[in-house]
From TrEMBL:
It comes from the Bacteria. It comes from Brevundimonas vitisensis. This is Chemotaxis protein methyltransferase. Residues 9-261 form the CheR-type methyltransferase domain. It catalyses: L-glutamyl-[protein] + S-adenosyl-L-methionine = [protein]-L-glutamate 5-O-methyl ester + S-adenosyl-L-homocysteine. Keywords: Methyltransferase, S-adenosyl-L-methionine, Transferase. It is an enzyme of class 2 (transferase). Its EC number is 2.1.1.80. Methylation of the membrane-bound methyl-accepting chemotaxis proteins (MCP) to form gamma-glutamyl methyl ester residues in MCP. Gene3D superfamilies: Chemotaxis receptor methyltransferase CheR, N-terminal domain (1.10.155.10), Vaccinia Virus protein VP39 (3.40.50.150).
Length: 281
């Protein structure tokens, strides 16, 4: 082994070589499609350092052995939770919620009110801020949505964020971007705790799902939010995902993506700022 490959990539309490980084990056890619460039070595070191301490290990080489050992499956899940980026906010990229509201006013609201089926999907929903923002937007246009055939599916690969999201409890600071007219109906305050109301929570179904595996739900979807998720995947993985989303949309369905992403797929055509719709045949 060359001296360069044996040298630690990061100065600190644990030795962390190029080979260790490669094993960890390959493990994450196989589990999630997330591509880790070498520039992320310091981030990997600091996020997984906590795991090494918890396991009583003294170097990343031993950690890689755990990933490959009898407790490997459990540790790969912990690695996934440690290395996924879960940053999110209520009403992030607000123009998407204006567009969604418009969709409900013109098309999806009347469809649901006349007994039609409306399905929305927050794919890569993290801690729940996105699907609950969708739910509050839907309720602002269609107050009885939960009694109609309207459902919001919210999925993420990380079981830890899904468990937190299901609780529907957030800090005052977290909830501050919620528009006042939606907060009145969507947020309750009891004994100093802030939580989303049952009206909001009843609309959302949470589940763990790796977007690169088979999707068990039937669809099709009228609206898919997949924002700030594909940005972590390589080009080929992104293209495959955009195509699958295109195929999962209703003929008038829309896909909303993150501000730094571009959805290039034969099934999709632009329909506004970071909004796409299914290309008509
Ligand atoms: C930065 S958050 C985005 C949250 C939200 N969509 C937003 O824009 O605020 C990215 C989320 O994608 C999830 N994720 C990453 N890879 C995934 C995969 N292969 N399948 C499903 N979710 C994935 C992560 O666990 C993380 O919670």
């Amino acid at each position: 082994m060359s001296a360069l490959r044996k040298a630690s990539l990061v100065d600190g309490e644990f030795s962390f070589t190029q080979d260790d980084f490669r094993i960890i990056a390959d493990t994450l890619y196989a589990a999630s499609g997330i591509a880790l460039p070498p520039s992320k070595a310091t981030l990997v070191y600091s996020r997984l350092g906590k795991r090494l301490r918890a396991l009583g290990l003294s170097c990343f080489r031993d950690y890689c052995a755990v990933l490959d050992g009898p407790d490997g499956e459990q540790e790969r899940s912990a690695l996934l939770s440690a290395l996924t980026t879960n940053v999110t906010r209520f009403f992030r990229e607000p123009h998407h919620f204006d567009a969604l509201r418009d969709q409900f006013r013109r098309h999806l609201g009347p469809l649901a009110a006349s007994g039609g089926r409306v399905r929305l999907w927050s794919a890569g929903c993290s801690l729940g801020h996105e699907p609950y923002s969708i739910a509050m937007t839907v309720l602002s246009e269609l107050p009885n949505a939960a009694d109609l055939d309207v459902r919001i599916l919210a999925t993420d690969i990380d079981p830890q964020v899904i468990e937190t999201a299901k609780q529907g409890r957030y800090s005052e600071d977290d909830l501050s971007p919620v528009p006042a007219e939606m907060a009145a109906r969507g947020i309750s305050r009891a004994r100093g705790q802030m939580a989303l109301t049952d009206d909001v929570r009843r609309l959302v179904r949470f589940g763990v799902l790796n977007l690169h595996e088979t999707w068990p739900m039937k669809g099709p979807f009228d609206v898919i939010f997949c924002r700030n998720v594909a940005i972590y995947f390589d080009d080929q993985t992104q293209k495959r995902l955009w195509s699958r989303f295109g195929q999962a949309l209703t003929p008038r369905g829309q896909l909303y993506i993150g501000h730094s992403e571009r959805a290039e797929a034969p099934e999709l055509q632009p329909d506004g700022l970071t909004i796409y719709r299914r290309r008509s045949a």
